[in-house]
Amino acid sequence: MKFNFPAVTFVRENTAAAQFQHVHSECHEVAFELLENRVTAADLEMMDLLHSSESYFRIRMAEMGPEYLRVLMDTVMQKNLTRGYYGECRCACMVVPGFGFVPEMGCPVHDGEE
């Protein structure tokens, strides 16, 4: 799995359950900022939430191996593709195990996406 942020020290110290509690606290911080109509502050907290979520998955990857995360990601992408969450596409776009979402060349909805 490709991560956006560097690993934090908590990855070596926290259990997955403890890291999930941190993810949950970040959700509360986002909600607070949005309720106060501080959108930029909420955006920063959302980025913190993403970082904290990545830390959770780093912990799980250490426990289960990288293939486990690839299978999770592929499963979620396939489920969301089936539900139409990636747009109303009638092409041969698909989720390829180990590679993720692969748009069909020329697809009017997805061509050109990474």
What does this structure look like?
Helices cover 59% and strands 5% of the residues. With 114 residues, the chain is mainly α. The chain has a two-stranded antiparallel sheet. It is flat. The two termini are 15 Å apart. The model has no long low-confidence stretch (mean pLDDT 86).
Kindly list the characteristics that best describe this protein.
flat, two-stranded antiparallel sheet, 2 strands, 114 residues, 4 helices, mainly alpha
Helix content: 55-70%
Ends apart, CA distance between termini: 15 Å
Structural class category? mainly alpha
H/E element order: HHHHEE
**Content of β-strand:** 5-15%
Mean pLDDT: 86
Q: Any idea what the radius of gyration is?
A: 17 Å
